[in-house]
Every structure is written in structure tokens, then in C-alpha cells.
Amino acid sequence: MAGEAQDQSIWPLPKFHFSVDIGDQKNLAFQEVSGLDTETQIIEYRAGNSKDFSTVKMPGIKKVGNVTLKKGIFVKDNKFWDWYSQISMNTIKRVPVVIKLLDEKGNPTMVWTLQNAWPTKITGTDLKADGNEVAVETLEIAHEGLTIANS
């Protein structure tokens, strides 16, 4: 019916409108974010007096994967290289990284927060004389935990 607001819970969220905060740097624009995953290792155990000839599976240690961020390269924009160059033996500035999936008005609908994040790898763009694509760099971030919040 015309004029009525549609129930937003019946449609999945689009994934193309998002922003990223890295420490004090807010609303950074990225082309792609991937690796927002976590898993729990499986511990297989069988008691010595068990009559079953199979193991019981129990949850073990949680693991989080690295998050990969891709963005276009801009003139004199070396923020990530500067952050990466601060790495020395077991010391690096660790910051929270907040990834926000936004609705059509720019309000966050889902928020992923990475605790104690730091750059583990930066990949510069490939260069091709006959290419016509935008130069894109990749930043891989290690972190110590992932939380998800819904707005």
C-alpha cells in the first residue's frame, strides 16, 4: 500500500554502504573489508572407561582471523605505511578498529569492533602499463578479539 512504511526486518541488509574507524581516524573509506570471522577450535576427548568407540567434541580456544581492508591510493596518503613502520620487536601501537554497516541514512545498523588491532601486512598496488583500473592497496590487520553489536 502506498505511503506505508515497509517492515525493514524482511529484507537482508545491503553490504555496500559501510565505514571504518581506525583508532582516532574516523569514517575512513574503503573499497572492501573481508575476514570478519571467528571460530572455536574443537577438542576431541574420550574417557578411558567410555563404552563408545568415538570421541566427544568440546569447544576449545577461540581464534580470530586477520581482517583485510582494501582502499584506493591517494597522493601523499601514507597513514598505513606510517603505522606499519612503527613495528619493532614486539612493540606496535594497537588500536580499536570499528567497522560499521550503514543504512540508507548513514546510521550504523551493525558494528564490528576489533580489539588491539595492528597492521601485519601491507600490499601495494600492481602496476600495468595497459591497465585502466584504480590503484588499490591492501592492509591486513591482526587483532585480539571481535565483538558485534546491532543498532
Automatic annotation (TrEMBL):
Pfam family of this protein, just one? Answer: Phage_T4_gp19
Enumerate the InterPro entries for this protein: CHP02241, Phage_T4_Gp19
A GO MF term: structural molecule activity
Name the UniProt record assigns to this protein: Phage tail-like protein
